[in-house]
Amino acid sequence: MAPPISPLAPDSFPHLPPLAGVRLATFASGLRYKGRTDLLLAELAPGTSMAGVYTRSLASSAPVDWCRKAGAKGKAQALVVNSGNANAFTGRQGDEAVGATVKAAAGLIGCKETEVFVSSTGTIGVPLPYEKITAALPKAALNLKADAWLDAAKAIMTTDTYPKLASRRVRIGDATVTINGIAKGSGMIAPDMATMLAYVFTDAKLPAPILQSLLTRGADKSFNAITVDSDTSTSDTLILFATGQAQHPRITHTNDPKLKDFRAGLDAVLLELAHLVVRDGEGATKFVEITVSGAASAKAAKRIGLSVANSPLMKTAIAGEDANWGRVVMAVGKAGEKADRDRLTIRIGGFDVACNGAAVPGYDETPVANHMKGQNVKFEIDVGVGKGRFTVWTCDLTHGYIDINGSYRT
Amino acid sequence: MAPPISPLAPDSFPHLPPLAGVRLATFASGLRYKGRTDLLLAELAPGTSMAGVYTRSLASSAPVDWCRKAGAKGKAQALVVNSGNANAFTGRQGDEAVGATVKAAAGLIGCKETEVFVSSTGTIGVPLPYEKITAALPKAALNLKADAWLDAAKAIMTTDTYPKLASRRVRIGDATVTINGIAKGSGMIAPDMATMLAYVFTDAKLPAPILQSLLTRGADKSFNAITVDSDTSTSDTLILFATGQAQHPRITHTNDPKLKDFRAGLDAVLLELAHLVVRDGEGATKFVEITVSGAASAKAAKRIGLSVANSPLMKTAIAGEDANWGRVVMAVGKAGEKADRDRLTIRIGGFDVACNGAAVPGYDETPVANHMKGQNVKFEIDVGVGKGRFTVWTCDLTHGYIDINGSYRT
What we know:
2 copies of one chain form a homodimer. The first copy, chain A, has 410 residues and is of the alpha+beta class.
């Protein structure tokens, strides 16, 4: 039985425009699910450059290992993603499955094997019946089209309750450039990396090293600033593909001022996708933003923010609509980063709750309690030691999370 | 309404024998709870030495700060513990409350203020109405007696569903020595420190530095090897008091072979108390032991073990009686310690589940599924890179945890 759609889901999905150099196809290969698509094939124009950010798990899956290796060349012509089976912890069989899939896709598209990127998401530890994928690929290829973004986002879903898409139009010089992104993920979401799978496509013409720099920086503030349950997947993958079809001035370095708008657009797509993942957090009923300021550094602020965001006691209090700022203090304290207990200040929903290490005199809980009842909850925490600042996002921890994860495989 | 007693509670509580040099009294001071005791006063014979291990939270409570400072002298004559209010994040008022309590107890017992140790547990951020404590202390002192261990364990409870006690009789030379311990804690339990409050008393005659060495080592394998929810309290305190009333040969260094039996007894009391805390984990239905071997070091093994023990996906799978070893792989991978994915071996309940980086050929889930249905669940994980070994304990994550923590203050 599919779980109900997250109450934090957006009202509608953006319609992503076609993007020169990208064609998409989806297919129901029958890997695990019945009556839905589970395979995405993306065909990318020759000359497409790419960059990737992957899980930091030391038990990374065979597809992740492959993408890391193939990605060193920075060139792409195909992407193959399956849902239902993560092909993780599958030993040598995992590498064989990747090899067979890559070979099949390269033959079909007519490109080098190192230009084929693969991802798998779903159950860990079960050998991937890759013959179903290699058999499905030629059939899927018959349906490649420019206008299948929503289908693509749907095909890569696992426990997601809605597809995740984002798009921006930006300028590089006088040219208009499109950035389209899709993502999936709703559990096992934590830095680093956060969302299990996300793919961003652009028709910009940018060399791989510039893409890598833009993507790494953007991921740090988006996918690596979200957490649902502190658990890091073996399969987390974020890839940025640039087909180079747009006609814009040549860009030769990352700090070219002509990239300003592109960078902002890319960051916006990454952040929107990351937020969509949190909003689909398993069992989530609240979208929570936590900004930490006054820390020793941005890195320290991030670590404090994630300590708060990952605290089960914080997350259950938020689920219970309880403005329990004592638990904020606890979570700040356990983060292991410098904080001045006697200068600690906490605001919830814009209201001062605690100031200089104690409850605000005459603290009126009413407006704060009202804020906690909403779907969007905001914490601002100043730890009073420096200028470091960082924002992270998470969701609450509810009975729904337990329901979903106490019986995932059964 | 009090939650039902944990299904993992022991069938009965041990009767702790009187211990020369310790008298106990409890009292209902009305700090927060109605109709139950919330104050413990322990009177210790002159000459009692002590050692402490405290929370590593950087937002430690006023009582913890006091114990750290007073404990530098290593002498004790009184312990005052209240439940219902943690006196944490209470600013200058917190220090004042500690000061007034210490002064009152020192006057009552007739000792130095630095010989009085205080702890508070309960809600964070609410000023402690210490006048209730100072008013109650003289009344409590009228009832000091040697045989009130169960009452003492009950007075310090908060969300605990049962009192926690452990005792051992050991030999130092020809003399019999008693070690009695009480503890409280069931949520906000994670290294370091784990249980919020634990006090161990012995009639052994040991100088403070030796006590400290024994306690630090013992805590590392017990209280600092358990986790309920990864959250670290601002108030965690473990103190060992030695009244020196037993007649045994003089001990002058920690490695004296005559201490062997005492060390084993102390370790056993600490471990038993730590296990009792996990068994009372909020909402717990399973007691989980996780042994990691083959790690680069014992420290690495511990970090991997805690990564598994703290993973919400692991804990919900265990609640769902799901032998989901894929999540074990995930949690090992995210720990950030060296592990050889292709030599990783996982046993559940003594049965091989995964071996050398993949599922065991012909894996029969039946006996493993049966093991998962029991109250005691065991994981053995070998990460295949070295000789480091460590065992940690935790419980599952259930609807009960959400119920308890989504409405704690209301």
